[in-house]
Inverse folding.
């Protein structure tokens, strides 16, 4: 078991023949991901990386039985690509694209509201279930199959946590980068809900950052419903107010979305908050040992 | 991307939001000319002169003044153009005023009392929807209103499927206590303001104050606008309005290399791939007894060129005593980054401060060996903790 994606997932790549799509699809295939084809409008009928290219997601789903899509489409066309994937019946839509206008994502979020598709991202590294499937741009080799679920708003900081977990002797059930934008699909709380229900996940790591209210929302849910230990870190304690720190969503607006405020509420809700990002793996290991 | 007040108002006007009669000027002579023109258009003397800088709190700093005569317009303009305006948002060095906005005095007498309100449009991140936030308490700092009298701030959520509806604009106008023709004007104003926000891909549009004039007009007296950087590709005309002189020179320079840089005032410079790891690196610098001098995300393509650019930008800051490079190689190979560091060392010439290079992930060991064998005064580290320990040793 794992969440969202597994060895049974059938993956298509939207923006398959572009440079990003080609590079990362190759990496995914090398990892063992079951990439069943791709979509590039106008290039349908061609073969790319030994897989069929389709003009539309509908056709790709019909011909390959794909249930997961990973999107590398440029920002101007990405919102459209997400909605197309949903309309074609894709279950999990992983959007890697960075720089989609917020106004486009507001419409996408509304569009997906009563649809069955779950959106991960945008502006995220993707989702990986180690040893089974890698749907995204993360380096596969740092991961190891195990019982820790990781959810994070960051990319490389997630790799850091993964690496610490692997080196501590533990492994990961599934790792989800939910993305650094202000309007995203799956939230920290939703990812944690999935991990709590997953029998294979024994412990959870949540990595947040400044801006927004998502960490507090997740913390309150964990306080009331949590059944597994959660270790948390929030990046940006030294970030100044009102400045965007790389991610479009990483900006302190008021008193409640600072790293301090988030860490405080997380602690109050029973989350094991680490002060130093160098201790994420160590603390998770200790918490599980005590259990 | 932030814009000046006068630029924001030109956008408002283009979407039918009423603004005062105003003209921007960059010399005292042009300011007087502008004042004459405004007088002939409005039939009224008396002007307000506002410094155009990207910062709030201009009034308290002496950046907003009233002039009763053309001579006063001249005197005030002479004083204001070229001044270093200091407000609570500019920092102690202030910002140089290059342009001023000359406008009609909106407090002219008439049939009713003037009123000032607050109105802004922004994204509610919890719901993923836009909201109009408004208050009867205009013309003052909205954050203090939120603190002292939060019940006087109202929110109207906009459904993304249909956009703002007239009933919502009426609700706003009634809540603000308006009636008669002022009510009708406010309905038009709120609708147009929201449509400006949506059509211009703004991420914040704040009008403080919104004024009801004595003849029941509704005007945007000030305008703070922030355009979503990610949407600038479809607003070339707004992108051209960008005033680079309002931004930190080091940040502008970094932008040329696609580096994401934010200047801070600590003593440990850092260069990191990825925004989250960059923030975490700043945090660990602080925990190690240092203070981060900057945020710098070199992105997914850390190579010799970007590393060199990063060095040059960080080294412009005389406060920097140590530089920490923290790279988690994924797609990026650590040996290539290490080679980049070695090359940058040679091309930058003298790097007068100790450099700690922490490489982890793809080809980390090879990278460390390259650094260790280079003979350079570079401290290498593999784990984040080792990097933190090195910082501690070097800053104390």
């Amino acid at each position: 078991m794992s969440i969202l994606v597994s060895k049974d997932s059938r993956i298509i790549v939207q923006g398959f023949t572009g440079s990003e799509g080609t590079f990362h699809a190759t990496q995914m295939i090398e990892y063992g991901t079951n990439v069943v084809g791709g979509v590039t409008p106008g290039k349908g009928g061609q073969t790319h990386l030994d897989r069929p290219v389709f003009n539309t997601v509908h056709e790709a789903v019909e011909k390959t039985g794909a249930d997961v899509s990973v999107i590398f489409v440029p920002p101007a066309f990405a919102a459209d690509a997400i909605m197309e994937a949903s309309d074609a019946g894709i279950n999990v839509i992983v959007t890697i694209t960075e720089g989609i206008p917020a106004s486009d994502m507001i419409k996408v979020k509304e569009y997906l509201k009563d649809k069955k598709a779950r959106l991960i991202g945008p502006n995220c590294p993707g989702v990986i279930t180690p040893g089974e499937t890698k749907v995204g741009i993360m380096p596969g080799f740092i991961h190891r199959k195990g019982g820790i679920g990781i959810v994070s708003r960051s990319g490389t900081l997630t790799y850091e946590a993964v690496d610490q977990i692997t080196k501590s002797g533990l492994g990961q059930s599934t790792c989800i980068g939910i993305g650094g934008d202000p309007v995203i699909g799956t939230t920290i709380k939703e990812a944690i809900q999935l991990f709590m229900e997953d029998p294979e996940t024994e412990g959870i790591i949540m990595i947040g950052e400044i801006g927004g209210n998502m960490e507090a929302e997740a913390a309150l849910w964990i306080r009331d419903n949590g059944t597994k230990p959660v270790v948390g870190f929030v990046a940006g304690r030294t970030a100044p107010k009102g400045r965007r720190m790389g991610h479009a969503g990483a900006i302190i607006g008021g008193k409640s979305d600072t790293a301090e405020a988030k860490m405080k509420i997380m602690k109050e809700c029973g989350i094991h908050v680490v002060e130093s990002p160098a201790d994420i793996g160590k603390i998770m290991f200790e918490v599980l040992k005590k259990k | 991307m932030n814009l000046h007040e006068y630029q924001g108002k030109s956008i408002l006007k283009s979407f039918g939001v009423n603004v005062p009669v105003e003209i921007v000027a960059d010399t005292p002579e042009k300011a007087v000319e502008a004042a004459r023109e405004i007088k002939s258009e409005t039939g009224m003397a008396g002007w307000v002169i506002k410094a155009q800088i990207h910062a709030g709190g201009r009034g308290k700093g002496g950046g907003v003044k009233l002039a009763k005569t053309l001579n006063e317009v001249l005197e005030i303009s002479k004083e204001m153009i070229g001044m270093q305006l200091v407000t609570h948002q500019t920092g102690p060095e202030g910002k140089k005023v290059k342009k001023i906005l000359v406008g009609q005095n909106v407090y002219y007498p008439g049939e009713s009392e003037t009123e000032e309100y607050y109105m802004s449009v922004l994204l509610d991140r919890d719901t993923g929807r836009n909201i109009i936030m408004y208050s009867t308490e205009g013309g003052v700092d909205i954050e203090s209103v939120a603190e002292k009298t939060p019940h006087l701030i109202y929110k109207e959520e906009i459904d993304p499927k249909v956009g703002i509806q007239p009933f919502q604009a009426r609700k706003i106008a009634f809540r603000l206590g308006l009636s008669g023709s002022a009510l009708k004007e406010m309905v038009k104003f709120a609708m147009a303001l929201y449509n400006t926000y949506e059509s211009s891909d703004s991420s914040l549009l704040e009008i403080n104050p919104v004024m009801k004039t004595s003849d029941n007009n509704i005007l945007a007296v000030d305008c703070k606008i922030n355009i979503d950087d990610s949407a600038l590709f479809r607003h070339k005309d707004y992108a051209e309005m960008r005033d680079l002189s309002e931004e930190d020179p080091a940040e502008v320079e970094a932008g040329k290399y696609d580096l994401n840089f934010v200047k801070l005032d600590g003593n440990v410079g850092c260069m990191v791939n990825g925004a989250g790891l960059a923030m975490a690196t700043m945090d660990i610098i602080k925990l190690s007894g240092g203070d981060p001098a900057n945020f710098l995300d070199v992105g997914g393509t850390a190579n010799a060129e970007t590393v060199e650019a990063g060095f040059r930008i960080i080294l412009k800051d005389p406060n920097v005593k140590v530089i920490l490079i923290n790279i988690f190689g994924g797609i990026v190979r650590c040996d290539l980054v290490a080679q980049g560091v070695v090359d940058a060392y040679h091309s930058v010439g003298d790097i007068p401060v100790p450099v700690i290079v922490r490489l982890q992930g793809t080809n980390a060991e090879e990278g460390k060996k390259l650094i260790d064998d280079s003979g350079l005064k570079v401290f290498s580290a593999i784990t984040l903790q080792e990097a933190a320990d090195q910082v501690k040793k070097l800053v104390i």
